[in-house]
Amino acid sequence: MTTSLLKNQAPTLIARLDYEVQRFADLAVLCHDSRSRLKTMALITACGDESSDKDQRVLAVGAFVGPADEWTALLLDWIERIKPETLPSKINAFHRTDCETGQGEFPDKFGWTEESRKRLIIDLIEIITRRRVLLCGAGLQMKDYGNLELIDGKPVGKSEYHVLLQAIMGELSWQREDSNAPSFEDIAYVFDQQDRAREFWAHEIHKETKNHPKISWKNRIGTLTFGDKKSTGLLQVADLGTYEVMRHITNYLFFDKKPRKSFEAFAATRNVAKIVIYDGKTLEKIVESKKAELAASFNDRS
Predict the structure, then answer these.
(1) How far is 125 from 145, CA to CA, in rounded Å?
(2) Confidence of residue 29 (pLDDT cuts 50, 70, 90)
(3) CB atoms within 10 A of CB 127
(4) pLDDT tens-digit readout, 212-239
(5) Does residue 78 contact residue 233 with C-beta atoms inside 8 Å?
(6) Higher-confidence position of 19 and 188
(7) Is the pLDDT of residue 16 over 60?
(8) Which residues of 128-164 are buried (b: 16+ CB within 10 A; e: fewer)?
(9) Are 7 and 62 in contact (CB under 8 A)?
(10) Are 208 and 194 in contact (CB under 8 A)?
């Protein structure tokens, strides 16, 4: 009976592996110039700190970035680790917050324990650290963004989410430009699916940045697509990384500034590229810069 069950399950797992890996491989090819050897992909998600203290609420956007072959190998290991027979109960997608807190698909009533949740997180982090993918993150305090001066009655960057989104795209694209890689080696961005308004403005910001006449690294910004964690397993990887970014920033701002062991695991294997905190003064400088840019644009038209 057991042997028969395993035989019946194996093709399903193999089919899923083949489908997800092939789908990602196809996406990597479609998103890049045919000359690209690296086919670099950046998987990006957002994570908010649901602190009961509104003055301490943090929003973070994080990305893991790496060449397609590293992502493919990581995806194979990731799917293998979260397959149903290795877990107390089946999950549709890994969510770091839920796994950490025992919510969503990870409650005790489904057979999960604090130890099994912790073991899964440790194993998934270890899978990531075996690969040449780098974590880049940016975060801000929600109250700092809310206190900013409006520009023509509108918040800078459309929303705090989009300010951080643009920061991540800028940092990764600038690093690629600074690496002296061939001009056709750009970065394709895959974002976690959000509501329609967020997606619309993300596309607008992406288009605006790619066409900006004064941005030297704009050609490093590749395509922009959206996916969901259930069907795009690698966004689950980004989810894990973004949670670490959010907790790292929260600890730095409000607590003892000591890195969590899980974050140190990424740092120890050099999987962390850069973490940026946008405090109130930095955000104010962004507003002033945007106002000056708008003024210059107005004068040019006059």
Answers:
(1) 31
(2) confident
(3) 20
(4) 888 889 999 999 999 888 888 899 999 9
(5) yes
(6) 188
(7) no
(8) beebebbbbbbbbbbebbeebeeeeeebbbbbbbbbb
(9) no
(10) no
